[in-house]
Every structure is written in structure tokens, then in C-alpha cells.
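Exam revision sheet. Question 4 asks you to relate a sequence to its structure. Input first:
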Amino acid sequence: MQSKVNQLQTSQDDKTRMKENIETNRKEIDRAEKEFTMKQREEHPVTNQIKNIEAELLMVEKSIFNLQSDLREEKNQYGKINKDKLALEKEYKKTQNILKALKGDIQTQENLRKTLDQNLQTKHQQLINQGGSMVLVTRSH
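Answer key, C-alpha cells:
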């Protein structure tokens, strides 16, 4: 009988020890949950800061992309402007050469007119000297 009492006492002690272990484990779980919750609260502002920084970086990347795109467009426009400028300069030089040639032609024509006028005057004078009574009208410039 003593053995049964000892067994019962041992069983009772085991039961009490198990309850104490369960209670200790529950307290440890509660403490760990509280610690986890506190760490989450501490991490929350840091996580928000990281999200804000990531959003700002994304905006900066978009700005850089837009600036690069604008720069490419400006380079294209600059290239077109330079091409147009070169074409206009070429046309200007061509026009200057034509003008120079036309001025030369005008001078040549003027010299030819003067020569022809002098020849005409000479012929007229010769006719008068020969006794002809022909009257010749000349242009004056």
C-alpha cells in the first residue's frame, strides 16, 4: 500500500511539476510574444523609412530617365538645327556666288554696251565726215 501511496505521490508531484512547466512555458511564450510585438513596433518606423526612401529613389530614377530622354531629344534637335544651318550656309554661299557672277555679267554687259556705243559714235562720225546727212539718236545712261 505504501508503494501505491508513493506512486500516487510521485504521480501527484509529476502532475504538479508538469503544471509548473506548462505555466513556465506559457509565461515564456507570453514574454516572447511581447518581445516580438515590441520589436515589430521598433521596426515599423524603420520599415516606413525604407519604403519612403525606395519611393524617393524610384522618383529619382524616373527623373533621370526623363532627363536622359530630354537630352536625347535636345541632341536630335541640335543635330537637325546644325544640318539645317549647314544647308542654309551652303545655299547662302551658292547665292553669293550667283550674285557675284551676275555682277560680273552686268559689268561685262556694261563694258560691251560702252564699247558698242563708242563704235556707234565712231561710225556716226565717219558717216558725217563722208558727207552723209543721217542723224543718229543714241541712248545715254
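Marking note for examiners. Residues 2-129 form the longest helix (128 residues).
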